[in-house]
Every structure is written in structure tokens, then in C-alpha cells.
């Protein structure tokens, strides 16, 4: 099995975003403002794109959005590889903070790699989220 994480064009990641995060919404729903300026990483297992994440610079902070791993590849450590790559990339790029709006059901995952909750819970489309951050 070979694993590779690399930058990919936004068009390559949209199908995974849609399938994993918002399958019941129209395809356009998974696009975000600034996608064209974002930095998008894909994780490939044996040359198959199985996980995606998008990064957006905001001053000294880097925000990540739309982090998704195909269901059949979840719970195998691939997401952890991806978030560790993003943390390393943000540090090497000189950012001081990495943050996102995290679904409540993913909080344990993020806390295991050093993220902390920085908000009260809030909702998007009936799904509970928290703002989380990691100081780099």
C-alpha cells in the first residue's frame, strides 16, 4: 500500500466533499467562497484519492475546511496523517494558528492532535459544531 499526500486542484476534491459531508445537498452546496484561492490537499492510497482538505490563509491564521475521508477508508489513520501534514504545512508556512469549525462528532479526533474548543456549540444545517484551534 502506498500513501501520498499532495496539493490538488479544487475540481478534484469536490466529489469527495459532496459524497462524505453533504450527500443530500446539491453538488454546488459543497463549494465555499475562496475555493479558487485555497490550498487543497489530497491523500492518495494506491493512486486513489480518498481524503481531502482545504486551507485558507487569514492573516497569521490558517483555516481548514471541508476535511473529508471516503467512508470505506475511515478509521484507518489516514485522516490523522492528513491533519498532521496540514499542521506541519501551516507551521512551515509561518502561520501561528490553525483553526476550523469542527463537527461535534469529530472533536475527539481533533483533540488527540492538540486542538482545543474555543466556542460554545453552534449549528449549521442541524449539525452541531464548535470552533477549535491549535496554536502552532
Kindly list the characteristics that best describe this protein.
136 residues; alpha+beta; Aminopeptidase; 8-stranded mixed sheet; globular
Write a concise synopsis of the structure shown.
The protein is an alpha+beta fold and about 140 residues long. It contains three helices and eight strands, in the order βαβββαβαβββ.
Largest sheet: 8 strands, mixed
**Roughly what percent helix?**
10-25%
**Tally of DSSP helical segments:** 3
Compute the number of structural domains. 1
Class by SSE composition: alpha+beta
Radius of gyration: 14 Å
Q: Kindly identify the CATH topology.
A: Aminopeptidase
User: What would the average pLDDT be, to the nearest integer?
Assistant: 95
What do we call the CATH homologous superfamily?
Gcn5-related N-acetyltransferase (GNAT)
> In CATH, what is the class?
Alpha Beta
